[in-house]
Write a structure and sequence with these properties.
alpha+beta, DNA primase, PRIM domain, Alpha-Beta Plaits, 2 domains, six-stranded antiparallel β-sheet, 14 strands, 19% strand
Length: 303
């Protein structure tokens, strides 16, 4: 596989089952390639999975095989894998014991079970109802990243107006995600309400380009701004997550100067990711921003 050192496989902290299983038939990328990728980028992934609750998307036969979502920790995870038990959202009285990220062994064991992408909650396991970031999911109706990029710049401008620093990344598919680091405090319902109000105002300012309509038909090809990943229990793919898509694209952190219509997200994938690691990390200061949602709400109300 391009970009990986075969010697890495001799230093893995887990035993990999069926390492030669093909996960991406067209490129020939294997399970071991994916394992080695996550080992190589784990220092970059770690800040976004440390002490965070994970939802598992398991694809045991690779990107073209059958996949399923799982919240309960799998029975064959390593002993002492960190977990967090949460009650179901439907008040049924039942609970789920989720995997908590932050350990390389945990991450590689999940990949060994077929987890290609890394889905994380917006909160830490010790305060699961109090997010420390806002996320806006940008879904271009055209399927073109150029439209997502233009929408992302509208989002950034609006966050700038209310004094919030924002960070962009590719979704690893056709869209973009915008993250805003927060000071922990407001609960998930407050964050979701803010995100809904925010995207509604941005869409209203650009009605020919952007929409918050749930119905695909009602969107009429416009870019959909989705705030609902901020709801309690929802997840979004982490920065540096590989996606279950053709050519094994990666959800890459971007500098805002890179958010231009001609940027090609699929240029960054499992085969050439080391080129990206050679560049400065545009998110290196992400967790240095502890931004107030209360102050932003006041400013948003005055727009």
């Amino acid at each position: 596989m391009k970009g990986l050192n075969p010697a890495v496989s001799r230093r893995l902290p887990i035993v990999v089952s069926h390492p030669d299983k093909i996960f991406w038939p067209e490129e020939g990328f294997t399970k071991l390639d994916l394992i080695q990728y996550y080992q190589a980028v784990f220092p970059h992934l770690l800040p976004y999975v440390r002490n965070r609750i994970l939802t598992l998307e398991r694809c045991p036969d690779g990107m073209r095989g059958e996949c399923f979502f799982q919240k309960q920790i799998p029975a064959n995870m390593p002993l002492r894998t960190p977990t967090k038990r949460l009650a179901h959202l439907d008040d049924s009285g039942k609970s789920t014991n989720y995997v908590v990220g932050g350990a390389l062994t945990t991450q590689l064991a999940l990949v060994n079970l077929g987890c290609i992408a890394v889905h994380v909650m917006a909160s830490r396991a010790n305060s699961p109802r109090k997010p420390d970031w806002i996320t806006i999911d940008i879904d271009p109706g055209s399927g073109e990243f150029a439209d997502a990029a233009r929408a992302g710049l509208h989002i950034k401008s609006a966050f700038d107006l209310i004094g919030l620093n924002s960070f962009a990344k590719t979704s690893g598919s056709r869209g973009m995600h915008v993250f805003v680091p927060l000071r922990t405090g407001p609960d998930a319902d407050d964050v979701l309400a803010f995100a809904e109000s925010f995207v509604a105002r941005v869409a209203a300012a650009h009605p020919d380009e952007l929409t918050v309509e749930h119905s695909v038909i009602a969107r009429r090809g416009r870019v959909y701004l989705d705030p609902f990943r901020n709801a309690f229990g929802q997840t979004l793919v982490a920065p540096w997550s590989v996606r279950r898509r053709e050519h094994a694209p990666i959800s890459i952190p971007l500098d805002w100067s890179e958010v231009i219509p001609t940027f090609v997200p699929s240029d960054f994938n499992l085969g050439n990711f080391r080129r990206r690691l050679e560049k400065p990390d545009p998110w290196k200061d992400f967790f240095q921003f502890r931004q107030s949602l209360t102050e932003a709400k006041v400013l948003l109300s005055k727009l």
